[in-house]
Amino acid sequence: MKNKLYLTIAAVIVFSSSINLANAEKNTSAVSVAPYVSSKISFGWVKAHNLSADVPLLAGTSFASSGHTDGVWGTKLAIGADTAIKAIHGSIRTELELGFNSAYENNGLVSNSSPSTWDYTNIESKTFLFNLYYDLNTCSKFTPYIGGGLGLSHLDSSVTAADPAAGWSFSSRKSVNKFSWQVGAGVAYALNDKVDLDLGYRYSDWGSLSSTLTGVIDIPIKADLRSHEVLLGLRYTF
Questions:
Q1: Which residues, in sequence order, are CB contacts of 56 under 8 Å at separation 6+?
Q2: How far apart, in whole angstroms, are the C-alpha atoms of residue 182 and residue 205?
Q3: pLDDT band at 19 (very low <50, low <70, confident <90, very high)
């Protein structure tokens, strides 16, 4: 009789323990967080919207480079956390990203001026962004995602305009920090349990740049920098 009682008690304890263990596993697996690092290379088509400067004392002369697009290479390095949430059938990724971009360049004749007038624009940029992504769990090796980011862009600009025939030239150098943002989408492919190959698209606004050309007179200039980027890289999850 006692043996049966002991067996019954033991069975109840084992059953209760299994239920508690199952609930614990369910609760712990409902949300899981994994840190990661990533590295990407990018190629972007950068456009300087409204890059212009009017010369009030030189009738009919304006420097207008708006609409010029230049190809720019870049590198993006990031650290982040991947939070998997069963309730949303995917995960939320948050990361801090540092980006380095090659120079945007525009070298050519100035519009609405004498044929000998030319301008040269060189703008280098670095970005520091806080990014937020939603990864959709497809129960396969492919994981599509959407997201965006906010942060700062550091712009180093050099602008020169001159007319050798008329004997005048203007130049400007300036470094500024501007509000920057990006939105994008892409897809990751799991090479193994730790490493993902990431291919994405991003639209970025690097902010507005304003400076002053100095020469015979001071000339204010401005430009709005925006880009369309394709990114390819690897993400390692710990």
A1: 217
A2: 6
A3: very low
Q: Chain-centre distance of CA 6, in angstroms?
A: 64
SS3 per residue for the chain: CHHHHHHHHHHHHHHHHHHHHHHHHHHHHHEEEEEEEEEEEEEEEEEEEEEEEECCCCCCCEEECCCCEEEEEEEEEEEEEEEEEHHHCEEEEEEEEEEEEEEEEEEEECCCCCCCCEEEEEEEEEEEEEEEEEEECCCCCEEEEEEEEEEEEEEEEEEEEEECCCCEEEEEEEEEEEEEEEEEEEEEEECCCCEEEEEEEEEEEEEEEEEEEECCCEEEEEEEEEEEEEEEEEEEEC
CA-based nearest residue to 93, from 145, 132, 144: 132
Residue keyed to tokens 């967080």: 33
Identify residue 3 by its one-letter amino acid code.
N
Tokens of 83: 């939070």
For residues 92 and 85, the answer to whether their CB atoms sit within 8 Å is yes
What are 72-129's pLDDT values in tens digits?
Answer: 999 999 999 999 998 888 999 999 999 999 998 877 655 555 545 566 778 889 999 9
- Per-residue tokens: 99: 């980006």
CA dist 160 and 108 (Å) reads 11
The CATH number of 30-237, from 3.10.20.590, 2.40.50.1070, 2.60.120.230, 2.40.160.20, is: 2.40.160.20
Separation CA 14–CA 64 (nearest Å): 80
